[in-house]
Design brief:
The complex is a heterodimer of chains A (477) and B (225). Chain A is α+β, with helices and mostly antiparallel strands and 477 residues long. Helices cover 49% and strands 18% of the residues of chain A. In chain A, strands 1, 3, 5, 6, 7, 8, 9, 10, 11, 12 and 13 form an eleven-stranded mixed beta sheet that branches. In chain A, strands 2-4 form a two-stranded antiparallel sheet. Chain A starts with a helix and ends with a helix. Chain B has 225 residues and is α/β, with parallel strands linked by helices. Chain B has eight helices and ten strands.
């Protein structure tokens, strides 16, 4: 106990030197707190986005491979390029994997609703199944659709782009929800039935089998407000592509009309890997489960890089800054402590002559630096917290400017499609970080303070306590 | 009975040039010893070895039969011996009182009211309460010497070692201090070893030791006869 009171007295006795030491430690702590807070927040954001974008798997046809195969299979000079599809059963089978954390299934089908009017119907309808035909004499008659029955994109509802204002989500069989625009256009309300029709096309277009007509009777269980863009970027504008005409239902309702050897209902799935590193294993497993080589299995790292790029830059800047601060700050403190302890060599000699053990002398000196550092940590955390947010804002803006300047793809222009899907929901790249102090940062700064205190005190003390006390006193005397 | 024994002690600052050459001597409780000799004869060096401030290169200092090399020299300095340095060696930016209280803490003295005991000691050597709470640097040389003496007595050691303890004292204080040393030896059965050039100091000695050419010669108490 007397060591603590003696240390406090010594701090007071040598106040001039200790104030100087305290100022340097305080500056170092403020810089470290700021850098650590920015680094901590940016790292957690990076990890979060890496988890989201790096783990979401997209399976898409490789157009080049499809075209090559169509050309190699052509026997009559006619090239039929048909985008391959994945059967719903296969999508579901793919979802049963140890590599996956979650799987979401989607389905959609183009519809006609003869008794109802569609938004922008005057612009005409659109086709559901895209088919590229090539070669001489090839023609195609494609049915026109004016609305689409599709599974809801939950992210849009979570983000508030679509908001259910009446009723409930369509969880039961043949249940559906519609946009307020579509409902008002047709004076539809909850409980009304929508009768819709469509047709499935034979997979083998050479066969004599004709289209297979299907119909849906959908009960409206909810109405949602929709603030998404009516049309996707670069999309042809007609009633079919207008998102206000989308009728949202559940996966089971949509695929209930599927027929073997017929296509027309688009089925998709979104898989989330346990970890972005699982992509190779999952791709191999899909191949074993029968996924054609014509498909690419990818994670959406491009989206990740575009959105998180500035934050990664910020994280890198803060890490570098922290390392520089720690190196130069550590050296500064070590030098000052060394000078301070050299000045106190005589005092150490006296204490040793009085019988104080080397360990007690060392602890006493360490304690003085520690107490000064502890006060600086408290003030430094407060100061660092105050300036971390404005500094983070400035640095992040610089990083955003740098990333945007480096981005050659003018189509993106800092905006991009969320999650790399074809939804017309646009999401800003990260432009703001809420820099907050958390326990991890507090622990880190405490460890840094403790380490600096110990290194600076121990390195200096080692030189002094190795002498016999009489040698120290003789030097002075 | 001897409380302190020098056994074949040798010491050299420069290799081959020994200041102390195989010294053998026994110090007993209840006596005042003065060590005299010319400057540079090795008096202070011998005192450093006896005080456990330095290690002897050959031979051993035995405390109650045990070599200083075998026991904890820090504990020895803190509890068994009180040292009064020629240059005082006080904590200069601490007060006189703090110097003495700290000494008691280091030696783990079991006195409850350490401040009171320290003030009593300081009073005994002629330092009043007002001066006791002054920074040591603001005291005169003589006052600092008295603080050093009080500090050496603070933990009630059974060996007191002093290097020119009265060099900076006026005649009256010198007399008082010498009386204290004599009383400590004769009434409290302590072993007091004083290095000095002063005739007055040798007068209180029970034994006078002369260091000459690296050897210690026991002159008995011949000067006082």
């Amino acid at each position: 106990m007397y060591i603590i009171s003696n240390a406090l007295k010594n701090i007071k006795r040598n106040r001039g030197r200790n104030i100087l030491l305290g100022i340097i430690i305080l500056a170092l702590i403020i810089a470290s707190v700021t850098a650590l807070m920015i680094n901590q927040v940016s790292s957690s954001v990076i990890n979060d986005y890496k988890g989201r974008f790096g783990s979401e798997v997209t399976i898409s046809a490789n157009i080049d491979k499809v075209r090559e195969e169509a050309m190699s299979n052509s026997t009559d000079g006619k090239i039929r390029v048909a985008i391959p599809t994945i059967p719903a059963e296969q999508y579901i089978a793919f979802g049963d994997s140890e590599y996956l954390k979650e799987s979401y299934y989607t389905a959609s089908v183009g519809l006609r609703v003869p008794e109802l009017e569609s938004v922008d119907e005057s612009l005409g309808g659109g086709t559901g199944n895209k088919m590229m035909m090539g070669g001489p004499g090839m023609t195609s008659e494609m049915p026109e659709y004016y609305t689409k029955l599709t599974t809801p994109n939950i992210t849009e509802f979570d983000n508030g782009y679509r908001k259910l204002t009446d009723g409930e989500m369509p969880n039961g069989e043949n249940e559906a929800i519609i946009s307020r625009d579509f409902a008002e256009l047709n004076t539809l309300s909850i409980g009304d039935i929508i009768k819709a029709e469509s047709e499935l096309n034979p997979e083998d277009r050479e066969s004599d089998a004709g289209d297979y007509p299907i119909s849906y009777e959908l009960k409206i269980v909810g109405i949602y407000d929709d603030i998404t863009e009516e049309y996707g970027s670069g999309q042809q504008q007609n009633a079919f592509t207008n998102r206000r005409n989308e009728i949202l239902s559940n996966f089971d309702t949509i695929i209930a009309k599927m027929q073997e050897n017929y296509r027309g209902i688009q089925v998709g799935a979104t898989y989330f890997l346990n970890s972005p590193e699982d992509i190779d294993g999952f791709t191999e497993e899909l191949g074993e489960k029968g996924l054609s080589d014509l498909f690419d299995v990818k994670t959406d790292m491009d989206s990740y890089n575009q959105i998180v790029g500035p934050v990664e830059g910020l994280s890198s800047v803060s890490s570098t800054f922290l390392i520089i601060v720690l190196i130069f700050g550590g050296i500064s403190i070590a030098v000052i402590s060394s000078i301070a302890i050299r000045e106190r060599k005589y005092e150490i000699g006296v204490l040793r002559a009085m019988g104080m053990k080397k360990s007690t002398v060392s602890f006493s000196l360490w304690l003085e630096v520690f107490l000064i550092t502890a006060v600086c940590v408290v003030i430094g955390i407060f100061g660092g917290t105050m300036i971390a947010q404005p500094i983070a804002d400035i640095l992040l803006q610089q990083q955003i400017d740098a990333v945007q300047a480096a981005t050659q793809n003018t189509q993106m222009q800092g905006m991009m499609m969320a999650g790399g899907t074809n939804n017309a929901v646009v999401e800003e790249p990260l432009s703001h970080l809420d820099v907050v102090l958390n326990m991890v940062t507090l622990l880190k700064i405490s460890m840094i303070a403790l380490l600096l205190t110990t290194v600076s005190a121990v390195s200096s003390m080692l030189k002094i306590v190795k002498y016999e006390p009489i040698k120290i006193l003789m030097e002075r005397n | 009975m001897s409380c302190l024994e020098l056994k074949d002690i040798s010491y050299a600052y420069i290799k081959g040039k020994r200041v102390l050459k195989a010294i053998n001597y026994q110090f007993n409780q209840g006596k005042v010893y003065t060590i005299v000799g010319k400057s540079g004869a090795g008096k202070s060096t011998l005192l450093s070895l006896v005080a456990g401030l330095d290690k002897c290169q050959d031979g051993a200092v035995l405390i109650n039969g045990k070599s200083l090399n075998e026991i904890d020299r820090d504990n020895y300095r803190a509890q068994d011996v009180g040292i009064i340095f020629q240059q005082y060696n006080l904590l200069t930016n601490a007060t006189a009182l703090e110097n003495i209280v700290l000494s008691m803490y280091i030696s783990k003295t079991k006195i409850k009211n350490k401040n009171k005991h320290a003030l009593e000691l300081l009073n005994k050597v002629g330092i009043n309460e007002e001066k006791a709470t002054r920074a040591v640097m603001k005291l005169s040389g003589g006052e600092q010497q008295r603080v050093a003496i009080a500090r050496a007595l603070a933990h009630n050691p059974h060996i007191i070692i002093a290097d020119e303890p009265t060099g900076n004292l006026d005649k009256n204080t010198e007399k008082d201090i010498l009386e204290i040393f004599a009383e400590l030896a004769h009434s409290e059965n302590k072993c007091v070893i004083i290095v000095t050039h002063s005739q007055k100091v040798t007068k209180i000695a029970d034994n006078i030791c002369l260091i000459k050419n690296g050897s210690l010669i026991d002159l008995g108490d011949e000067d006082n006869d």
